[in-house]
């Protein structure tokens, strides 16, 4: 995790790159920290920054373990490395790109990015690192910014407000591969970036420029916002930063912005943000098609998916209550289900039954106050899980990552002394006015736990409940994803789970073989998905059973064992 701190006693570890807080009073330095998988140990923690103040906006952890951090610095002495593209501050602020080794003990390389002039402000807002280690950033600049020959847009549209830019460094940090503005004649902001396997770069954010560059066949070539409102955009550039592949607006008549995006295996763009527009575009059959309301600058969160050409809105749903929401980050699982996190001030925010926290605890302002974690199905038609996350103060949730088994890691900041922590956690109490937090959540309702882990076909097979299992209801559903496509399988229901597991055909089975077992034939669709409906009949509250799916692998599976399997679910009727 990374962030910014004003604490001179922020915990650092022996051998860390920087153990001393350098910033002046009321300014911040960056921290980069790593915890053990169970949250009980601080593996490493380091400061990063200079004497005038610094902010980290995003990080990327490469498969090699190398950590790339981007943000903005006001510090002329921000740490850079010899031979890096830019080692000295030239303007009022500069963006930075810094690579740390996997132990947090040394810089691999570190460069600034900015132009000359005291009124020049550059901010590196988001980062994505490709397989070879090249670094692509999206950010915002006012004033001078280095651009490259052949860039799509060599000069910014307005000298008085921020314009989005996209830049790429090679894996040594010495060479600026390309750098281009991407904006109109008015204010704009890029907030997120992703690179596909062909090197194409997708960015998103918002713009107040009616002439923001779009393409003819895009989903929405012209803005719908009016007056001083800004509107969300999603834009894809080619691998050289020299031309648009496609670019579209998406929004209504008031303020909208995209906060985060990811690309799926098909190249579709999944993105989240928030809107003040009563008529933000939604699609039929999704979880929430209506605008629930909002106050001041916040309305409802949204989750949307554009196809790989930027011309078709595959789905789009709102998510919110009557006060105000801000979705900040999303994470896709292997089956295309999406977890979004953010903050809400709504006591009537959609919460699923049996969630970790069903009532808002913090003060309800006309501004967002309490964290939320929500998971929607691959088509945005079902809210699989949704919970508040916070205490009696206010929270900001700024990070989420999905693990292979479907658990998520959530990170943010809290002002709550009663923020929920677990037994044995590395830090169990609030020490400052506000502290950072990081936690692991299974996103399962009460009465259900995950046992074992999925066995791969192409990544683990996923098994989620559609809702809490209630005896009085008499029915429940299981959602299967990332199974072998168009193949046969079995649903095993048994009298209990078996944590150690036993192996059949390369798949780990976690339904207890010494208790009753019922096996039901099932099949997956062309996308490796299926929904399994169960009936409980006359079973009573407290009845316990286990469920797991087993699948026959096919030629499309990268793992060549005979079978793959989901984890088991241990279910107690509520």
Concise overview:
The protein is mainly β and 574 residues long. Among the domains are: 1-183, no CATH class; 448-572, Immunoglobulin-like (Sandwich), CATH 2.60.40.
Structure description:
With 574 residues, the chain is mostly beta strands. Among the domains are: 1-183, no CATH class; 448-572, Immunoglobulin-like. It is 0% helix and 44% strand. The protein has strands spanning 2-5, 29-35, 42-48, 54-61, 67-73, 94-100, 107-113, 121-129, 135-142, 163-169, 176-181, 188-195, 201-207, 231-237, 244-250, 256-263, 269-275, 300-306, 313-319, 325-332, 338-344, 370-376, 383-389, 395-402, 408-414, 435-441, 448-451, 462-465, 475-481, 488-494, 497-504, 507-511, 517-523, 530-535, 544-552, 563-565, 568-572. The strands form ten sheets. Strands 27, 30, 33, 35, 36 and 37 form a six-stranded antiparallel β-sheet that branches. Strands 4-5-6-7 form a four-stranded antiparallel β-sheet, with no helix packed on it. A four-stranded antiparallel β-sheet has the order 8-9-10-11, with no helix packed on it. A hairpin with a 5-residue loop joins strand 24 and strand 25. It is globular and about 75 Å long.
Furnish the topology, listing elements before pairings.
Elements: E1 2-5, E2 29-35, E3 42-48, E4 54-61, E5 67-73, E6 94-100, E7 107-113, E8 121-129, E9 135-142, E10 163-169, E11 176-181, E12 188-195, E13 201-207, E14 231-237, E15 244-250, E16 256-263, E17 269-275, E18 300-306, E19 313-319, E20 325-332, E21 338-344, E22 370-376, E23 383-389, E24 395-402, E25 408-414, E26 435-441, E27 448-451, E28 462-465, E29 475-481, E30 488-494, E31 497-504, E32 507-511, E33 517-523, E34 530-535, E35 544-552, E36 563-565, E37 568-572
Antiparallel strand pairs: 1-2, 2-3, 4-5, 5-6, 6-7, 8-9, 9-10, 10-11, 12-13, 13-14, 14-15, 16-17, 17-18, 18-19, 20-21, 21-22, 22-23, 24-25, 25-26, 27-37, 28-29, 29-34, 30-33, 30-35, 31-32, 35-36, 35-37
């Amino acid at each position: 995790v990374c962030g910014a701190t004003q604490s001179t006693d922020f915990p650092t570890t022996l051998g860390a790159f920087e153990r001393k807080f350098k910033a002046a009073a009321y300014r911040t330095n960056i921290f980069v920290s790593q915890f053990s998988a169970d949250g009980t140990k601080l593996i490493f923690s380091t400061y990063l920054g200079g004497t005038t103040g610094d902010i980290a906006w995003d990080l990327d952890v490469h498969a090699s373990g190398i950590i790339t951090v981007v943000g903005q610095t006001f510090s002329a002495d921000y740490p850079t490395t010899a031979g890096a593209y830019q080692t000295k501050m030239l303007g009022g602020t500069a963006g930075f790109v810094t690579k740390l080794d996997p132990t947090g003990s040394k810089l691999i390389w570190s460069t600034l990015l900015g132009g000359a002039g005291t009124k020049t402000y550059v901010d590196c807002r988001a980062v994505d690192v490709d397989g070879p280690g090249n670094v692509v950033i999206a950010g915002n600049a006012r004033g001078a910014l280095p651009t490259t020959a052949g860039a799509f847009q060599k000069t910014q549209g307005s000298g008085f407000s921020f314009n989005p830019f996209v830049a790429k460094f090679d894996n040594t940090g010495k060479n600026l591969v390309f750098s281009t503005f991407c904006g109109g004649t008015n204010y704009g902001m890029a907030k997120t970036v992703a690179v596909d396997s062909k090197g194409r770069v997708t960015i998103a954010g918002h713009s107040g420029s009616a002439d923001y560059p779009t393409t003819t066949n895009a989903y929405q070539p012209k803005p719908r916002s009016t007056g001083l409102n800004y509107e969300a955009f999603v834009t894809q550039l080619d691998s050289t930063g020299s031309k648009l592949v496609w670019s579209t607006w998406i929004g209504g008549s008031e303020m909208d912005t995209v906060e985060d995006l990811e690309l799926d295996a098909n190249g579709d763009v999944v993105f989240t943000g928030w809107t003040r527009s009563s008529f933000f575009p939604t699609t039929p059959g999704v979880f929430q098609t209506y605008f629930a309301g909002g106050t001041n600058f916040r309305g409802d969160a949204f989750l949307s998916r554009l196809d790989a050409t930027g011309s078709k809105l595959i789905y789009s749903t709102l998510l919110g209550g009557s006060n105000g929401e801000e979705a900040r980050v999303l994470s896709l699982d292997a089956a295309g289900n999406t977890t979004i996190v953010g903050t809400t001030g709504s006591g009537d925010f959609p919460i699923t039954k049996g969630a970790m926290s069903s009532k808002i605890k913090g003060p309800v302002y006309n501004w967002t106050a309490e964290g939320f974690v929500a998971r929607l199905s691959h088509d945005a038609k079902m809210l699989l899980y949704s919970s508040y996350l916070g205490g009696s103060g206010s929270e900001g949730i700024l990070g989420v990552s999905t693990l292979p088994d479907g658990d998520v890691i959530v990170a943010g900041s809290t002002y709550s002394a009663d923020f929920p922590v677990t037994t044995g956690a590395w830090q169990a109490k609030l020490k400052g006015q506000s502290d950072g937090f990081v936690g692991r959540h299974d996103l399962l309702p009460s009465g259900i736990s995950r046992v074992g882990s999925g066995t791969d076909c192409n990544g683990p097979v996923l098994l989620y409940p559609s809702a809490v299992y209630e005896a009085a209801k008499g029915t429940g559903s299981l959602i299967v994803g990332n199974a072998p496509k168009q193949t046969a399988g079995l649903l095993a229901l048994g009298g209990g789970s078996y944590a150690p597991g036993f192996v059949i055909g390369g798949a780990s089975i976690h339904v207890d073989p010494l208790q009753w077992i019922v096996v039901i034939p099932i099949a997956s669709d062309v996308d490796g998905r299926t929904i399994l409906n169960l009936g409980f009949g006359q079973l009573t509250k407290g009845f316990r059973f286990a469920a797991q799916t087993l699948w026959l692998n096919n030629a499309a599976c990268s793992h060549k064992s005979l079978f793959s399997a989901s984890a088991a679910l241990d279910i107690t009727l509520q």
